[in-house]
């Protein structure tokens, strides 16, 4: 998925499905410092982060899941 498309959803609750079949649900955030160029979904309940991924790893994304 294009980086410009992914960045439209920053700060929103999303469900991300990656090319390898993994799915992540949470608030989409962009990495800084050493994670620059990567994204992750922060879980609302416990504040933990999911796996980091690049925009090119994303197969599909749904808002509000």
CATH class (first level) name:
Mainly Beta
Strand order of the largest sheet: 3-2-1-4
For the terminal residues, how far apart are their CA atoms? Answer: 19 Å
**What summary fits the major beta sheet?**
4 strands, antiparallel
Uncertain residue segments:
none
CATH architecture: Roll
Order of helices and strands: HEEEE
Number of helices: 1
Q: Using the alpha-carbon principal axes, give the shape.
A: globular
- Number of self-contained structural domains: 1
Q: Which strand-content bin applies to the residues?
A: 35-45%
Radius of gyration: 11 Å
Extended strand count: 4
Kindly state the percentage of residues in helix: under 10%
| Topology-level CATH name | SH3 type barrels
User: Average pLDDT value?
Assistant: 87
> What would you call the structural class?
mainly beta
What would your notes on this structure say?
With 65 residues, the protein is mostly beta strands. The chain has a single domain (3-63), classed as SH3 type barrels, CATH 2.30.30. The protein is built from one helix and four strands; from the N terminus they run αββββ. A four-stranded antiparallel beta sheet has the order 3-2-1-4, with no helix packed on it. A hairpin with a 4-residue loop joins strand 1 (13-18) and strand 2. The longest helix is centred in the N-terminal third of the chain and has 4 residues, at 3-6. The radius of gyration is 11 Å and the shape is globular. The two termini are 19 Å apart. The relative contact order is 0.32.
């Amino acid at each position: 998925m294009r980086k410009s498309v992914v960045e439209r959803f920053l700060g929103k609750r999303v469900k991300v499905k990656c090319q390898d079949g993994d799915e992540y649900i949470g608030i989409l955030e962009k990495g800084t410092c050493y994670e620059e160029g990567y994204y992750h979904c922060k879980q609302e309940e416990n504040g933990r982060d999911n796996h980091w991924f690049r925009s090119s790893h994303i197969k599909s994304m749904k808002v509000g899941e």
